[in-house]
């Protein structure tokens, strides 16, 4: 029996995250994060979340196109058939293939922290690739230019 190795990455959904419609859902108000996932050893891997938020996860083969969430979709899950409110699924992954994990929430416009946990026969590479929009904390100035002659 091969011992399982856990890989964990923590993140947070904010109002700067992109939004999309989950597979099979026409409501496009779900913040999401994307992660590139690769393995160096073929095998069955368990992918899931850990959060106080009700989560939803989808795994894509090769690429993820937010406007077409069914394209390249391998598997998706909401509550892993339990009351945990966390996505969980097992999937057979091939080495050196690019997979994209999309982590989102069950509820619309939901923000907060979460972790992704992947267990398998070997450590995997899991890199967050989401582009998050931020607003500057410092107000933009006009360099002292005034239109008032006083």
Computed over alpha carbons, the radius of gyration is 19 Å
Principal-axis shape equals globular
Helix/strand/pairing class, anyone?
Answer: mainly beta
Main beta sheet: 6 strands, antiparallel
Low-confidence stretches: none
CATH topology: Jelly Rolls
Mean pLDDT across all amino acids: 89
Distance between the termini: 82 Å
List the quaternary state of the chains. single chain
The percentage of residues in β strands lies in 35-45%
What is the CATH class designation?
Mainly Beta
The share of residues in helices is: under 10%
Counting structural domains, the number is 1
Number of DSSP strands?
10
How many helices in DSSP terms? 0
Order of helices and strands: EEEEEEEEEE
CATH architecture: Sandwich
In short:
With 150 residues, the protein is mostly beta strands. It is built from no helices and 10 strands.
How does this model look, in words?
It is a single chain. This protein is 0% helix and 44% strand. The protein has 150 residues and is an all-beta fold. The strands form two sheets. Strands 2, 3, 5, 6, 8 and 10 form a six-stranded antiparallel β-sheet that branches. A four-stranded antiparallel β-sheet has the order 1-9-4-7, with no helix packed on it.
């Amino acid at each position: 029996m091969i011992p399982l190795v856990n890989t964990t990455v923590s993140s947070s959904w904010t109002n700067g995250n992109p939004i999309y419609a989950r597979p099979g859902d026409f409501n496009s108000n779900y913040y999401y994060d994307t992660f590139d996932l690769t393995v160096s050893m073929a095998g069955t891997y368990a992918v899931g979340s850990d959060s106080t938020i009700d989560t939803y996860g989808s795994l894509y083969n090769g690429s993820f196109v937010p406007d077409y969430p069914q394209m390249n979709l391998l598997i998706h899950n909401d509550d892993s058939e339990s009351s945990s409110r966390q996505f969980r699924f097992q999937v057979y992954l091939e080495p050196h293939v690019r997979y994209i994990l999309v982590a989102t929430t069950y509820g619309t416009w939901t923000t907060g922290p979460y972790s992704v946990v992947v267990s398998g026969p070997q450590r995997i590479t899991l890199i967050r690739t989401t582009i998050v929009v931020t607003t500057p904390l410092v107000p933009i100035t006009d360099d002292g230019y005034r239109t008032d002659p006083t």
